[in-house]
Every structure is written in structure tokens, then in C-alpha cells.
Amino acid sequence: MRKQQGFTLIEVIVVFTLLAMIMAMIFSGIDSGRRTAEKGEKRITAINEIRVIQNIIRSQVSKAMALGVAESDEGELLKFIGEEQSITFVSQMPGYLGKGGPHIQKLELINGRNGKELLYTHGLISNYDDEDEMSEFDDAEPMVLLENIRNGSFAFIELDEEGLPTDWIAELENPAAMPLMVQLDLEMNRQAKEHWPLLQIALQVDGASSSRRTSTMNLLQNRSNTETKE
Questions:
Q1: Distance between the two ends of the chain, CA-based, in angstroms?
Q2: How many CA atoms within 13 Å lie on the side-chain side of 167?
Q3: pTM
Q4: How far apart are CA 4 and CA 133, in angstroms?
Q5: Position 55 pLDDT exceeds 70
Q6: Are 97 and 71 in contact (CB under 8 A)?
Q7: Could you give the percent of the chain with pLDDT greater than 90?
Q8: Separation of alpha carbons 7 and 41, rounded Å
Q9: Taking the mean position of all CA atoms in its chain, how far away is CA 39?
Q10: What residues have CB less than 8 Å from 229, skipping those under 6 apart?
Q11: pLDDT digit string (tens) for 152-172?
Q12: DSSP class of 197
């Protein structure tokens, strides 16, 4: 009588062990690829968010209008309030973002839960004669544009008393006039998924002062080229 052929228990255990190891390696590779893809998608999303935020800020600040946002104690209209941690100005709001027309807009850096936050507030400019009546800007809720900021500041270039552009300064000395350029420099903390590229914005101007501003911007460009060569 012939003995029945088959696998021993040890052989079966070895086979199943090898299969388990192979399957573990396969699933590990799949999981690693999935996590790598998710990490790449998150970074792309973060880069796109930064790009969108910068485009919004650039669009609104570059089109700032020479309209008063506040009044000084001497009764002088302040057209662009620029400080180290905030800017306030008037700019045209696109209709698809809400009510069209000139809006008072404010960008400010405040302390949040995970570092500083960049807030944006806007409201339709008011012609109310009654000082006690709330405008849309006064009643508007600020929205968070960006979080996880370790440190940041605005800086400005304006015309000095001789009509020449200043260096970058932390606060506008003449808020009754429009600045030439606005800069927003942010340093992100570890929780942020992407860094903030330095944002420098040249303001557009009306036709009445275009020739003067054009020569001034040429001077700024020449200064920048000289500094680059040095």
C-alpha cells in the first residue's frame, strides 16, 4: 500500500509565514505610497492657499484709492493708515465677493492660539453724517486669512519731504498721502505646511499723479538694481 503524499505541518507553517511576510511588505509599501501622496497633496494645497491669499492682498492693496478712512484730530483725512501690525485703506471690492464698490479694508496681525493670525476686515464705505451711526465696516466680523504665524510685520516706502522715496519704514509718517509700496513679511511656525514668500506690492495711482509716480518707481527700480549688483 502506497503512503499518501502531502505537506507536513512545519511546511504549511513556513509557507503561511512567508505569505504573511510578503503581504505585510506589500501593504506597507501601499500605505507608505498613500501617506507620501497625502503629504504631497497637503503641501500642494498649502502652496495654493498661500498663493490665493497673496493674490487677494496684492489685488486689493495695489488698487487702494485715495479716499479717507479716518479723520485726524486736526480734521485731516487719513487715506492710508500703515502700521507695523496693520494697514487700513479703501479699495474697490469685486462684486462676486459681496457688495461692489469702495470698501474700507483692514489687514492686521493679532495674537492667536497657535501664534499670530492674519485677519481681514472689510465694509462698504459710509457717507453717514451721524458719527454715532455704525457703518458696515465698524460692524463687520474679521475673517482669518492665515494662521500659524510665528512673527510678521508690514513695511512701507513713501515719499519724503523732498519728494524722494524712503527706505522701508515700519510706520507711515504721512497717512494723509498714499504710500508707494507695501510689504508683508511673515515667518511661519512649525505647524505651518508652507513658508510665506516675501510679498511686496506697488500701488497703482490715478492719472493726475502718474508722471510723478512713474519717475519715482523708476528710481526705486534703479535703486533695487544697484543693491542687487552690490
A1: 99
A2: 1
A3: 0.71
A4: 100
A5: yes
A6: no
A7: 43
A8: 49
A9: 22
A10: none
A11: 999 999 999 888 999 999 999
A12: -
Distances (CA, A) of 26 to 10, 12, 31, 36, 209: 24, 21, 9, 15, 68
Closest CA to 93 of 156, 140, 45, 152: 140
Those residues with Cβ within 8 angstroms of residue 90's Cβ, 6 or more apart along the chain or in another chain = 64, 65, 67, 68, 69, 79, 102, 103, 104, 105, 125
How many residues in total does the chain contain? Answer: 230
Residue 38 domain-assigned (yes or no): no
- As for how many domains the chain has, the answer is 1
Determine contact, residues 66/206, Cβ cutoff 8 Å: yes
Asked if residue 221 belongs to a domain, the reply is no
Strand partners, 146: 118
**Residue 161 structural domain:** 50-213
What kind and span of H or E run contains 153?
A: strand 143-157
Question: Would you say residue 178 lies in a domain?
Answer: yes
| Angle, CA of 161, 156 and 136, to the nearest 5° | 110
- Residue with cell string 453717514: 128
- Let me know if residue 79 belongs to a domain: yes
Check if the beta carbon of residue 122 is closer than 8 Å to that of residue 106. yes
Residue 225 · residue 83 · CB < 8 Å: no
Confidence at residue 229, expressed as pLDDT on a 0 to 100 scale: 55
Average pLDDT of the chain, as a whole number:
81
